[in-house]
Design goal:
With 353 residues, this protein is mainly beta. Helix content is 3%, strand content 39%.
Amino acid sequence: MAYSTINDPSAYFHTELYSGNGSTQVITNTALGDFKPDWLWTKSRNDSFDHITRDSSRGVAKRLITHSTGAEDSNSGTSSFNTDGFTLDSTNTVNKSSDTYVAWQWKANGGSTTTNDASATSVGNQDSVYQANTTSRFSMFTYGPLGSGGQIAHGLGAIPHVILIKSRSGTRDWCMYHHRNTSAPETDFLSINQNVGTQDATVWNDTVPTSTVVSVSGDGKVGTDETYIGYAFREVQGYSKFGSYTGNGNADGPFIYTGFKPHWVLIKETGATRNWAVADSDMQATGNGGNTNAFQTNTNAAQDANERMDWLSNGFKIRTTSTTWNTSGGNFIYMAFADKTLVGTNNVISLAR
């Protein structure tokens, strides 16, 4: 059985669905394990508004867009992170009257950061500022300008399985390291703002990340005279899983074991020009066997209800021939976070939907 040290995943990751009111609005999370969001990702479900990300390391006023190469800006929208949610102004992208929205939230360290002076700590060879949650194994780190690459302290305290980096000050692609991307993932990267497959480049300096640092090259996307934000993740049994599966091209698609009941899943075929797909069990259009609402991180399109996925007590099963999810023979990487642990320290067993 997949026992977990995290009994309530909503203490570290939470989805909140809400409706816009066209005015100011305080969104109060309904999670059992309420927390102040450190990384907030919002999207209109029924409108072609941007995927907007904000975090407590850069400050709530600063936004980045997942489907854009654009630099960080200070456009309005979210005005505060609160102890149990966040506050919105009247901006349409996050709060248009009659629109419905989803907000994905991760907890790091409540906005409390640690400065790594590389010359004093001998951790890496470049300075960084990070905040980490060593229980859920999620960290955010800022750094730069560098000049020409280097080793950056990420604060995770474990070897990351997934790293996501975006230039804050330059017009650059997002770069993702995923440990199941290829047989040598340190030599390749994926971009969540593009539908292209794996790109072979020395973004990660062809070096596997360690429990203390991530290596970046002098590529402008990750390591030149610009400023950067990074997000690092490592699997926690029963709470998160970052793996891969092979598609079969059949409506009776592959079953992917995660060891928990999934809540949120991000999927990308690595070897082909395909859209990214992100699905959430709270947005399920119908029950298992029915339609699944999903987004594309590389476009601003509204949710698509034409995909199918079953959310099970110990994983998820693909129920579509869509090439975005299930190309025959295709290698798909995924990120998954739990709705319920299969078995926690409280010995409570989770049931399927």
